[in-house]
Design a protein that fits this description.
It is a single chain. With 217 residues, this protein is α/β, with parallel strands linked by helices. It has one domain: TIM Barrel. The protein is 32% helix and 20% strand. Strands 1-8-7-6-5-4-3-2 form an eight-stranded parallel beta sheet. It binds D-xylitol-5-phosphate and zinc ion. Zinc ion (ZN) binds next to strand 2.
């Protein structure tokens, strides 16, 4: 059964606490928080103050996905805000190794993220040091996009490396995930599914979390 990470990018911002409680009670393990800077991706969302405000209202793992240029400068702020997992896009920094070290030294879990156009080979040198790898299954920037099936092979490649080398990182998928697309991801080795519009655009977000779990039993 896959772990579920509802993305609050698609939640109701004026009733955010209610939406968070719904997915928490439904058994979602993570809460996925998308940070966008308007430069790395063509959209802007929220910053460390937002994570700090959410921290006291849930015990779910706060899974912060940084879609920002120069992420190194922001890492201490997100660590202080209470992020549990911090993901850095490999495309956004010339120093991915250093960025992951900063996260780990700060006491959070370190995640490396790859876009649909980025090969697994780009992150092989840091796989020994990560707690989680995020395979983007859409181009980042917006919720509600269509799942890109060509990304599934990269999940399988990562899972093969994981088994061969005895690593224990989680493999997360993000973008266009629903109760159909999650099946191939899970079979290929994904262990965490981010879902925004599938969960929060529905009348009953709790049922959607359960549907993702039931599809991967
Ligand atoms: C996209 C974000 C996603 C987004 C997913 O850039 O990284 O986390 O919220 O939304 P859905 O599940 O609607 O594709
Ligand atoms: Zn995301």
């Amino acid at each position: 059964m896959i772990k579920v990470a509802p993305s609050i990018l698609s939640a109701d911002y004026v009733n955010l606490q209610k939406d968070i409680e719904k997915v928490d009670q439904a058994g979602a393990e993570y809460l996925h928080i998308d940070v966008m800077d308007g430069t790395f991706v063509p959209n802007i969302s929220y910053g460390p103050g937002f994570v700090k405000a959410i921290r006291p209202i849930t015990k779910m793992t706060l899974d912060v996905h940084l879609m920002v240029e120069h992420p190194e400068h922001l890492l201490p702020l997100f660590i202080d805000a209470g992020a549990d997992v911090i993901g850095v896009q490999v495309e956004a920094t010339q120093h991915i190794h250093r960025a992951l070290q900063i996260i780990k030294n700060g006491g959070a879990k370190a995640e490396v993220v790859i876009n649909p156009g980025t090969p697994v080979a780009m992150i092989e040198p840091v796989l020994h040091m990560v707690d989680q790898v995020l395979v983007m299954t859409v181009n980042p920037g917006f919720g509600g996009q269509k799942f890109l099936p060509e990304t599934v092979d990269k999940i399988a490649q990562l899972n093969a490396i994981k088994q061969k080398k005895g690593y224990d990182f989680d493999i997360e998928v993000d973008g266009g995930v629903n109760d159909k697309t999650v099946i191939d991801c899970y079979k290929a080795g994904a262990t965490v599914a981010v879902a925004g519009s599938f969960v929060f655009d529905a009348a009953d977000p709790a049922a959607q979390v359960k549907a993702l779990k039931n599809a991967t039993k």
